[in-house]
């Protein structure tokens, strides 16, 4: 009997915790309900995954169950939702007053959200916010509440829990903040935890830790989990049963092993096919180098942010964001730059664009060192290097139509008359797979994937020789990710552009990269051909990144060991330097950072 079979047997023995039938949710001003005829069951001690892309109705469903949808203008127009009272009876959630629901939320049903920072008050300490949650739901003195809070932080394996209680949310990493949210949700020992995309905003290594943590706590406490996600790889890692939603309806429901082995609905099969699977890409074919001069060459780059303090505002320390990094990117090549948040990837990208001035080093664009350029020459140089950002909506002007957005760089650099620019814009819109009518639409009228296509068209407008793509698909659903990655490959082939592809997801990187460079705490620790890096990684951190990628099949689940990782601070005293190192070639084109003492 598998683990999943045992869990389902336990559910059958202990009974149903949450039962929903015929749920319908509508919003004012819309003719079509956001959720239609949804039925759902969660057994005690069971992990149920509610799966679907953005807009499928997942979050609306759980907010309706928590009676939070009413605060967003939504209304439950049909259906019943029953919660076991633990004594053989049932509570009708939709018949409860707001006062009664406040007692159920947190006590019986707790919820953690996708972005922990937006769920925490930045001006209150961690301890104050935890204690407030405990005392709101339990009639205990402050000393007892503090003890409960400390135990909750220990339960989620947060390092130095006593010190964390005195810190503020901004002093914690993303993974620590998500552990804090889990601790806050678990402090009152709920029967059901609703986890709404709790790992989507996290690095793949932190995601693996959070999934391992949830599984461990679920085993220890017997708590049930309703896990909302769009990632079938995450479903394979954690779920006992899975329900797939599409356009507000449940289209498939079953044991996770059965759904993965033989999905009945075409949409479920599409989700499974779109899930990034490390090791599925064919062997890379080396691209022919058509020009001896790289499109981009970064040499011994150092980026540091000064930290001032004291009465006179003197620089007391520096944040060592990028430390002595060197690499080349050839025309028509994709170099993937990977690493966790805070490792220096985005600081490196900003320095290459001269949005931040490096402390030392050289940046050569088509053989010319742009760090020596004045403002006028840098304006011309920026025609040759463009950027695609992580959040397409935030990087587009909401007051401009698509035609004006794509035309803007052409107008700034005065590349032609009105007729020529209009023709160029029309060509680019067609090239990125958007209809001609998109030219007159505004960003809010598009989906996330369509908005990212607009960003790609804008980046291509000036025929750059280098494009920096900073996490260009991490904010998108997995099926849309695949489309955008295919488009990036197509335009690279057509325009022979060099791409620096920044990501934390090794499964995504495998699809697009020719070579991979790994950054850790501001340093380049390993760089080499894609296949060598994925199949024969040399650095322990590179191996950890690969091990953290979810395996998109429940039969291959791994029992991950949960540890509280401490990451050393990048803040160092003025004058402090990094340890001396060499990049040693361990195989053709495959280099590993080694201490000079080794």
Automatic annotation (TrEMBL):
Annotated compartments: Cell inner membrane
Every ABC transporter domain range: 18-272, 296-546
Keyword presence, ATP-binding: yes
SUPFAM superfamilies xrefs: P-loop containing nucleoside triphosphate hydrolases
Alphabetical UniProt keywords: ATP-binding, Nucleotide-binding, Transport
Predominant location: membrane
Record has Phosphoprotein as a keyword: no
Topology in the lipid bilayer: Peripheral membrane protein
Single GO MF annotation: ATP binding
Family listed: Belongs to the ABC transporter superfamily.
PANTHER family, sorted: D,D-DIPEPTIDE TRANSPORT ATP-BINDING PROTEIN DDPF-RELATED (PTHR43776:SF7), TRANSPORT ATP-BINDING PROTEIN (PTHR43776)
Record protein name field: ABC transporter ATP-binding protein
């Amino acid at each position: 009997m598998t683990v999943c079979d045992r869990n389902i047997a336990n559910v059958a023995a202990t009974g149903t915790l949450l039962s929903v039938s015929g749920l319908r949710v509508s919003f004012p001003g819309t003719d079509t309900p956001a959720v239609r005829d949804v039925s759902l069951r969660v057994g005690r001690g069971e992990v149920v995954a509610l799966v679907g892309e953005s807009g499928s109705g997942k979050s609306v469903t759980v907010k309706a169950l928590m009676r939070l949808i009413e605060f967003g203008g939504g209304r439950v127009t049909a259906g019943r939702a029953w919660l076991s009272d633990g004594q053989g009876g049932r509570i009708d959630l939709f018949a409860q007053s707001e006062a009664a629901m406040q007692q159920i939320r947190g006590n019986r049903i707790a919820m953690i959200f996708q972005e922990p920072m937006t769920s925490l008050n930045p001006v209150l300490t961690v301890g104050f916010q935890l204690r407030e949650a405990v005392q709101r739901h339990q009639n205990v003195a402050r000393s007892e509440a503090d003890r409960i809070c400390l135990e909750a932080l220990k339960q989620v394996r947060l390092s130095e829990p006593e010190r964390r209680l005195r810190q503020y949310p901004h002093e914690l990493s993303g993974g620590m903040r998500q552990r804090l949210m889990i601790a806050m949700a678990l402090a009152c020992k709920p029967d059901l935890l609703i986890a709404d995309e709790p790992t989507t905003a996290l690095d793949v290594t932190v995601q693996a830790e959070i999934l391992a943590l949830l599984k461990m706590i679920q085993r220890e406490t017997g708590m049930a989990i309703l896990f909302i996600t769009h990632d079938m790889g995450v479903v394979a890692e954690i779920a006992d049963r899975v329900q797939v939603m599409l356009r507000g309806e449940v289209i498939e429901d079953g044991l996770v092993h059965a759904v993965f082995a033989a999905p009945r609905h075409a949409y479920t099969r599409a989700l499974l096919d779109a899930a990034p699977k490390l090791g599925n890409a064919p062997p890379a074919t080396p691209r022919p180098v058509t020009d001896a001069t790289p499109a981009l060459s970064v040499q011994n780059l150092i980026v540091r942010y000064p930290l001032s303090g004291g009465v006179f505002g003197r620089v007391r320390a520096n944040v060592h964001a990028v430390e002595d990094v060197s690499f080349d990117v050839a025309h028509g090549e994709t170099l993937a730059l990977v690493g966790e948040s805070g490792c220096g990837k985005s600081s490196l990208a900003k320095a290459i664009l001269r949005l931040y001035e490096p402390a030392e080093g050289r940046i050569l664009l088509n053989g010319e060192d742009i760090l020596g350029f004045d403002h006028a020459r840098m304006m011309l140089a920026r025609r040759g290097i463009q950027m695609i950002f992580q959040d397409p909506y935030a990087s587009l002007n909401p007051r401009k139509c698509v035609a004006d957005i794509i035309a803007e760089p052409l107008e700034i650099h005065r590349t032609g008359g009105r007729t020529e620019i209009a023709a160029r814009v029309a060509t680019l819109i067609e090239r990125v797979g958007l209809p001609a009518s998109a030219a007159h639409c505004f960003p809010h009228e598009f989906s996330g994937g369509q908005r990212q296509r607009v960003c790609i068209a804008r980046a291509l407008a000036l025929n750059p020789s280098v494009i920096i793509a900073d996490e260009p698909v991490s904010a998108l659903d997995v099926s849309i990710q695949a489309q955008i990655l295919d488009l990036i490959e197509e335009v690279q082939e057509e325009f022979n552009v060099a791409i620096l592809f920044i990501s934390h997801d090794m499964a995504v990187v495998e699809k697009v990269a020719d070579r991979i460079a790994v950054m850790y705490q501001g340093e380049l620790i390993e760089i080499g051909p894609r296949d060598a890096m994925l199949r024969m990684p040399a650095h322990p951190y590179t191996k950890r990144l690969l091990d953290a990628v979810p395996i998109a099949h429940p039969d291959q689940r791994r029992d991950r060991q949960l540890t509280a990782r401490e990451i050393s601070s990048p803040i160092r005293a003025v004058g402090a330097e990094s340890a001396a190192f060499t990049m040693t070639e361990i195989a053709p084109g495959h280099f590993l950072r080694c201490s000079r003492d080794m």
